[in-house]
């Protein structure tokens, strides 16, 4: 066996095999796991073997066997496979149902799903061939293959055209593949070969399924260079070949001979156990940076700075998990002990003891000891960083509060500003957080060469509050994770999640955030109580998901005033969120300020309508796809809840608008725009 010919079904594999046979005189075989279709007993003795399975399922599993992967526009491939099932595999089955199932590929069906199949095989394959190129210029395509594998002299005059293969009896395809199902020759040819052209999805894929397709597979489509323009929904602009070259990225993965721009990313946020918006932001960027590093096709190289150690970005998770397990265990123990004492001792006892400790000489002694230790560590860090900074063109600080980690570097500094609530709404923060945030931004104002603001509103606030020049600020949006946030159709998973978090089967409104004053949980609870008083027989609940943050006493006190229909779930794991979002009547986010607003966008990705406060960046992100309520007025909040509860048509319209709006945000786009900032920063 010389080579695997791999593809997702309906991507040109049959045509490829016919070229091998008619032009080069080479027969080929297939490898699959279907029980209704036999495998050649000696399939592995053929030079070329076709498969649709994933690389891990191959037999033989020898990775030294070369592989050619054929890729086709996923929209065309899935439309074709849905027709193939309706016409041949399961005659009479519904085309739209088949198409929907193929798009979702639940539990790894449909050969792992289009995106997964493409992603795994493009990593494994030695040559990647686009179906569109194979159809338009097969001879040129095979010139590439002849460089990989020795082939006999080809006779291209023997190649039959598409029409003759469709209505004739070619070596591969047509009736030769119909060993189980008996269909008349003319009908089978029409149904098996179909059109053989690109773009058939435009007339056959309904808009709603097209948008679902893009939510699940848009990232892979863009990475393979396919035009992202489904239905009437505005999509992320494709990074074209010219733009990729400007960034030092070659579309075919060929290294660009330029001096590498070396980027060091401060990554201590990754050690946090909480998965907040800043950690999500950093993790998503690193996901794409790691891919670029693995391909070696970028003008950039990336490392992480964690606890004053430089960590290679490839397989960084393993190193981080190791650091997490050993991270200042004594500090974690002391903080846990302090928390337990505070929670279990009555305030009448705890508060006097805390005052005694604060005013005692013991505390001053501990402070002096800690300060002396920090001075020694500072000198050591300075020596380390003076050596490290020589090797990097840019240091990226994703969180200004962590400026201490990079303040001794001499490299260019890029900082991401998520919000400046400590400045605009100090009443919602602790004194410690206000001081750390202010120190961080003032350091960045003096030292940073470029600012990334995650919304236009954050950019505006940054300019107004700190007089940062507009030329130094780039607005780069965040996005929801398409692998986590999509409409849940799995009723078994929903039932499991509800049981896990003790959510009843009654309808509910949903809040999701760290429970702290800025999120305005108090007025949301008040608004819900007004709604419940008007509709006492509705059995509607309010589900409040998220960990306790700071200044929560008033929030919990408000909840204690008649809280039978309010459910606090605590932290919800990411894998369970789509089910919680998808099942809600609406997502309520009446925050007083947001730098961007990831939770509403996640809800929109799950086709859940949003009630929001319309302040800061929320109207910018949600636009016309949600209902705005006055965050200061519980009655206004109750009115919007009532409107969505009583009007399923409005609820559905807003769900569609929100879903379509969510498709305009992309972490891939975020990554490329961040690379542009790096490039601008050093030139």
TrEMBL record:
Residues 379-481 form the Glycosyltransferase subfamily 4-like N-terminal domain. Residues 499-658 form the Glycosyl transferase family domain. One of its GO terms (molecular function) is sulfotransferase activity. Residues 10-224 form the Sulfotransferase domain. It comes from the Bacteria. Keywords: Transferase. Gene3D superfamilies: Glycogen Phosphorylase B, P-loop containing nucleotide triphosphate hydrolases. It holds the Pfam family Glycos_transf_1. This is Mannosyltransferase.
């Amino acid at each position: 066996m010389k080579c695997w010919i791999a593809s997702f079904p309906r991507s040109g594999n049959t045509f490829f095999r016919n070229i091998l046979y008619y032009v080069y005189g080479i027969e080929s075989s297939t490898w699959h796991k279907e029980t209704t279709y036999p495998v050649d007993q000696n399939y592995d003795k053929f030079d070329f073997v076709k498969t649709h399975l994933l690389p891990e399922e191959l037999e033989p599993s020898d990775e030294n066997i070369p592989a050619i992967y054929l890729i086709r526009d996923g929209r065309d491939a899935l439309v074709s496979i849905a027709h193939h099932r309706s016409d041949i595999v399961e005659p009479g089955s519904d085309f739209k149902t088949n198409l929907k199932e193929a798009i979702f590929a639940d539990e790894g069906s449909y050969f792992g799903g289009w995106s997964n199949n493409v992603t795994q095989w493009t990593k494994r394959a030695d040559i990647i061939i686009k179906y569109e190129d194979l159809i338009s210029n097969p001879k040129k395509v095979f010139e590439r293959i002849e460089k990989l594998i020795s082939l006999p002299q080809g006779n291209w005059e023997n190649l039959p055209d598409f029409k003759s293969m469709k209505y004739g009896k070619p070596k591969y395809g047509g009736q030769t593949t119909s060993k189980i199902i008996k269909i008349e020759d003319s009908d089978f040819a029409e149904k098996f070969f179909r059109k053989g052209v690109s773009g058939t999805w435009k007339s056959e894929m309904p808009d709603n399924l097209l948008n679902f397709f893009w939510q699940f597979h848009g990232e892979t489509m863009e990475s393979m260079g396919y035009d992202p323009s489904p239905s009437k929904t505005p999509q992320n602009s494709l990074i074209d070949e010219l733009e990729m070259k400007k960034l030092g990225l070659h579309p075919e993965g060929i290294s660009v001979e330029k001096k590498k721009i070396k980027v060091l990313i401060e990554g201590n946020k990754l050690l946090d156990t909480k998965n907040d918006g800043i950690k999500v932001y950093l993790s998503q960027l690193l996901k794409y940076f790691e891919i670029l590093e693995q391909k070696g096709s970028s003008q950039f190289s990336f490392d992480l700075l964690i606890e004053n150690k430089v960590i290679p970005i490839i397989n960084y998770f393993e190193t981080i998990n190791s650091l997490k397990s050993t991270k200042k265990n004594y500090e974690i123990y002391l903080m846990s002990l302090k928390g337990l004492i505070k929670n279990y001792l009555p305030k009448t006892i705890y508060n006097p003891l805390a005052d005694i400790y604060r005013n005692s000489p013991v505390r001053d002694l501990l402070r002096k000891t800690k300060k002396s230790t920090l001075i020694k560590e500072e000198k050591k860090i300075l020596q380390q960083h003076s050596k490290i900074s020589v090797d990097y063109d840019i240091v990226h600080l994703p969180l200004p509060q962590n400026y201490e980690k990079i303040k001794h570097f001499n490299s260019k500094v890029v900082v991401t500003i998520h919000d400046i609530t400590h400045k605009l709404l100090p009443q919602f923060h602790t004194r410690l957080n206000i001081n750390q945030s202010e120190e961080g931004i003032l350091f960045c104002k003096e030292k940073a060469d470029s600012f990334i603001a995650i919304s236009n509103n954050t950019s505006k606030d940054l300019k107004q509050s700190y007089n940062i020049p507009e030329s130094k600020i780039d607005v780069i949006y965040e996005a929801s994770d398409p692998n986590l946030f999509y409409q849940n159709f799995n009723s078994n998973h929903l039932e499991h999640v509800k049981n896990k978090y003790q959510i009843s089967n009654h309808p509910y409104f949903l809040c999701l955030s760290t429970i702290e004053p800025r999120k305005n949980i108090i007025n949301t609870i008040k608004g819900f109580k007004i709604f419940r008083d008007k509709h006492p027989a509705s059995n509607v609940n309010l589900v409040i998901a998220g960990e306790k943050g700071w200044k929560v006493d008033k929030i919990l006190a408000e909840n204690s005033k008649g809280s039978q229909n309010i459910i606090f779930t605590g932290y919800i794991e990411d894998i369970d969120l789509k089910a919680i979002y998808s099942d809600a009547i609406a997502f309520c986010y009446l925050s007083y300020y947001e730098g961007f607003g990831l939770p509403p966008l996640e809800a929109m990705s799950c086709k859940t309508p949003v009630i929001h406060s319309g302040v800061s960046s929320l109207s910018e992100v949600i636009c016309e796809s949600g209902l705005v309520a006055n965050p200061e007025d519980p009655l206004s909040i109750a009115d919007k809840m009532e409107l969505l509860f009583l009007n399923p048509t409005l609820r559905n319209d807003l769900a569609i608008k929100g879903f379509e709006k969510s498709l305009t945000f992309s972490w891939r786009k975020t990554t490329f725009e961040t690379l542009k900032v790096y490039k601008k920063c050093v030139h």
